[in-house]
C-alpha cells in the first residue's frame, strides 16, 4: 500500500527539525560559549574531514535510495540490493579511514586541529552503519522522525549539562559523535528486522560505475562551499571560517525542511517515471509549486532580516557574518533550483553522466575564481560566497537548458503559477524597511518582520485563490 506523500512530508519535516533545526537553535549556546576561534577550529576541521567522507560514503545514500525504491516490492531483490550496498560501504569506509588517519597524523600531529580530526575519525568508522537510505526507500518516515526526536532531546540535555565554558571544547566535539552513533545503530537494528543479508547475488562491479557518477553529483559542495571554508581557513584564519560557517549554517535551518517535499517524492517518481510520463509531469509540477511556495519567502525573508537573525542567534561577536548571510540567502534560491533539477529530473531519469560534466565545469570555474581572488589578495568570506553563488547560478542555467533541450521534458520552471511566489515575496522588502524605520529594537523588528511578512504573504495567496494554500489547508483539516 502506497504511503501518503503529504504524511511522509510531515514526518520528513519533523525529521529535518530534530536532525538540523533543533541543533542549530541550541547551537547558539556553544557558539556563544566557545566563541569564533574555537567554533572556527571545528568548522575548519570539518572541511578537511568532509573531503575524506565524500569518498568514504561513495555516493551510496542517493544511489541506494533510488535502486531500492525500484525493488522494494520484491523481498529477495530488496535483500540483495541492501547486501551489495552495505558491502560497498564497508569497503569504502575502511579504505578511506586508513588513508585519513595517516594524513591527519602526518600533517596535523602538532596542530590544534589534531584531536578534533581524530574524534571525527570515529564518526567515519561508525558511518558504516548509516543505512537510513533503507528507511527512506521503504518510506519509514514515522520511525525516522520519532527516533530522531528522542536522540536530539538526549543530546540537548547533555549539551546544556556538560558544556559550560571553553574548557569543555572537546566534550562538545564528542557529543556530536555520540549523536551520530546512537542514530545509526538504532536505525541499523530496526532495519535488520525487516531487511536481511543475502549474499546470493553480489555485483560490486556493476554498481561501482554508477556510484562514481553519484559520488560526484552528491558532493558538488566540494568545489563550492567546502572549498570556500578550506581556503578561508588556510589563508584568512579560523575565526573567518566561523563567520562564513554561521551564514551557511543558518540557511541549513531552512533548506533541509524545504527539501523534505523533494526527497519524499523521489521513490514515487522513480517508480512512475517509466510507466506514466503524464503522471510524472503532473507530480513534478505539483511538488515544484509546493517547494517554491515556501522557498522564495524563506530566502527573501532571511535576506531582509539577516542582521536580526545573526544578532539574536549568537550576539554581536558574530556581526561580521551579516553580509555573508545575505548572500547565502540568495544562494538558497540557487541550491533550491539545483536540488529540484538534480533529484527529481536528471537523477530520476538516470542522466548522471551529463550532470557530472556540469558540476565539474562550474566547480572548476569556482576553483579558478578562488585562486584569482587569492592572487589579487581579496579572498574574504564575502568574496568567496559571491563567486560560489555565481558558479552555482551558472550550474542551474546549464541544468535547465539540458532538461528542456536534451531531455525534452515538458516542465517550465518559469510558468507564472510557480514563479509568482518570488514576486509576491518581494513585498517583504518595503514592509521590513518600513518596520526598521519605525522601530529600533532588534527583537521587536524580528518578531514584527516575521509576523507582518508572513500574514501579508498568506493573505495575498488567499486573495488570488492559490491552489497550494487551499490544498494545504484542506489536508490539515482532514
List keywords for this structure.
478 residues, 2 domains, mainly alpha, 0% strand
Percent range for helical residues?
over 70%
What is the averaged pLDDT score? 84
What series of H and E elements makes up the topology? HHHHHHHHHHHHHHHHHHHHH
* Count of discrete domains: 2
Total strands: 0
Strand fraction band? under 5%
For the largest beta-sheet, the strand count, sense and barrel status come to: none
- The number of distinct helices, counting runs of at least 4 residues, comes to 21
Report the principal-axis shape. Answer: globular
Membrane topology: Multi-pass membrane protein
Transmembrane segments: 9-28, 48-65, 86-106, 112-131, 143-163, 169-190, 210-227, 247-266, 287-306, 318-342, 354-372, 378-401, 421-439, 445-464
Keywords: Membrane, Transmembrane, Transmembrane helix
Protein name: Heteropolysaccharide repeat-containing protein
Structural notes for this entry:
The protein is mostly helical and 478 residues long. It is built from 21 helices and no strands.
Concise description?
It is found in: Membrane. By secondary structure, this protein is mainly alpha-helical. It has helices spanning 5-57, 60-71, 75-108, 114-126, 132-137, 141-162, 169-192, 204-218, 225-235, 238-251, 255-263, 266-272, 277-304, 306-314, 322-346, 352-375, 381-405, 416-425, 428-438, 442-463, 467-477.
